[in-house]
Design a protein that fits this description.
Elements: H1 2-11, E1 15-16, H2 18-26, H3 30-38, E2 47-48, H4 50-66, H5 73-86, E3 90-94, H6 106-125, H7 136-142, E4 146-157, E5 163-168, E6 173-178, E7 194-201, E8 207-214, E9 232-235, H8 248-260, E10 267-273, H9 295-306, E11 314-318, H10 336-339, E12 346-348, E13 353-357, E14 360-364, H11 370-376, H12 385-395, E15 424-427, E16 433-438, E17 441-446, H13 454-458, E18 467-472, E19 478-482
Length: about 475
């Protein structure tokens, strides 16, 4: 089996890490997984790692459920049992809760950025167009066409309108010149993002003139494969209980629909990605707009508001920048004191988090960093948050910019890296609503239950409230139920 695997991969022009081969040999259908890897020539890795195999194997396992092989009767019974176990199962795969180690010193910050650089560098190393990457110091000695990886340290525009980046790796730094009007390089850059550069040195050998900038991005083969489930997950964000701009009539309309409409019977899960309550002291003058001025009383009111939600629906709650957790991201789940206010069907996760629901991977993030993306990338706006989410996926990072509006905790591991490719990516925060898709990944921005506040009016933020995005976990179909009328 190992020999056949190596033959197929070699024929496809892929080098293999021994650990990847060993993992392939343990899979139920190793040849099927190899064929799945080979079917997308534009995104297949140059060097197949163990992490690549884990990702591809997940896709193949979903396909196996959708297209079962003919097996003997006893094996069919075993498969049925396994399917039953996974049914209506919710797992918090990863978040920061209980694992925070930072104290905020210089060493913590160094470890955070080193982890970011090394993790995303590995992603870039697997890009075929970046085969032959060298370190910056090595590139300076070679002085020819080169390929390097670095973290963006500085971004400037020259007097002639060219873009000048300073990027650095673990040991050195260098200037990258991007010519004005470059056809291949049109996107904006963010400080602290990690990029690959293909280019050549200038005549004086001081700077690299970029031919291409490569981002880690997500693979093209990330689409959800139908798996036979008929369950639906609803996404309900930014409820802002306690605010005088909370919309109780529209919330009650949603509850009535959940309990009376036959189509709501398929909703088995509800994910709430942050700003569950309005909090206190979040923005200037907020106290004048609060109906409930005690944060614990706000959560008690939320508990009463979700009581009418049918008991067959499992709820996952996570915090946002208005909730009673630390402001710096990643944020842990709500405290036990607050969790005890809610009944046992409510699960709690940190922000961001990876969830697994009936085998589907969901990356849930409140979305505070959209403020920084929108401020830094001219083409982005609050009216189109899904575009900002695509930029996160391209960079494989939820909040690359340090020192702006999004507070980042210096954990020794960078929890904001998108190191696992999800089936579904959901955010809130900007009080907009939309569904889209990027390279097969379902994108959701999950609306709000708050009308326009004075603070939003000052900043020209127009909310799109009382709308609930839905996704069928079996087919991947997405739609929005509207309760704003």
């Amino acid at each position: 089996m190992k020999k056949r695997i190596l033959e197929l991969l070699t024929e496809g022009g892929i080098l293999v890490d021994p650990a990847a081969v060993n993992l392939l040999c343990t899979l139920p259908d190793p040849i099927g997984c190899v064929k799945h890897i080979l079917k997308d020539p534009d995104n297949r890795p140059l060097i197949l790692s163990k992490e690549d195999v884990e990702q591809y194997a997940h896709c193949v396992s979903e396909k196996t459920i959708a297209e079962p092989r003919k097996v003997s009767e006893p094996k069919k019974k075993t498969a049925a049992v396994e399917t039953t176990v996974k049914k209506h199962e919710v797992i918090v795969v990863r978040d920061i809760t209980g694992d925070s180690t930072c104290v905020g010193n210089v060493i913590d910050f160094a470890k955070l950025f080193n982890d970011r650089y090394s993790t995303i560098r590995k992603m870039l190393y697997r890009r075929r167009e970046l085969a032959g990457i060298v370190s910056i110091s090595r590139a300076k000695k070679v002085q020819r066409d080169i390929k390097i990886v670095g973290m963006v340290n500085e971004i400037r525009t020259t007097k002639n309108g060219h873009t000048l980046l300073e990027i650095e790796d673990e040991a050195d730094k260098i200037q990258i010149l991007i010519m004005k009007g470059s056809r291949k390089i049109k996107e904006a850059f963010l400080k602290d993002e990690v990029v690959g550069v293909i280019g050549s040195f200038s005549k004086d050998g001081e700077i690299i003139i970029a031919k291409e900038i490569i981002r880690p991005d997500v693979p093209m083969n990330s689409a959800m494969i139908p798996n036979g489930s008929d369950s639906v997950v609803a996404f309900v964000s930014d409820i802002h209980v306690g605010s005088d701009t909370f919309l109780p009539e529209k919330w009650n309309r949603f509850l009535e629909w959940l309990n009376k409409d036959p189509s709501a019977k398929k909703i088995r899960y509800m994910v709430m990605p942050g700003d569950l309550v309005d909090g206190i002291g979040i923005y200037p003058g907020q106290e004048d707009e609060l109906l409930i001025e005690d944060v614990f009383a706000q959560y008690e009111a939320l508990s009463k508001l979700i009581e009418p939600i049918p008991d067959w629906i499992k709820i996952v709650m996570m915090p946002g920048n208005h909730d009673a957790v630390r402001l710096a991201e990643p944020q842990p789940a709500l405290s036990k004191e607050i969790q005890n206010i809610f009944d046992s069907r409510v699960m709690f996760a940190g922000n961001p988090c990876y969830l697994e629901i009936e085998g589907r991977s969901i990356l849930a993030y409140h979305g505070r960093s959209m403020d920084d993306f929108i401020a830094s990338v001219p083409s982005l706006s609050y009216s189109a948050p899904l575009d900002a989410m695509k930029e996160m996926l391209k960079r494989r990072h939820l909040a690359p910019v340090y020192g702006e509006r999004t507070a980042i905790a210096p954990e020794q591991k960078d929890y904001m890296i998108i190191d696992r490719v999800p089936n579904i990516f959901v955010t809130g925060h900007v009080h907009s609503c939309g569904v889209s898709e990027y390279r097969g990944i379902k994108l959701i921005n999950a609306s709000t239950w708050q009308s326009q506040t004075e603070f939003q009016r000052m900043h020209n933020v127009v909310p799109d409230p009382a709308r609930v995005p839905m996704i069928n976990l079996g087919t991947g179909e997405s739609w929005i139920e509207d309760f704003s009328y």
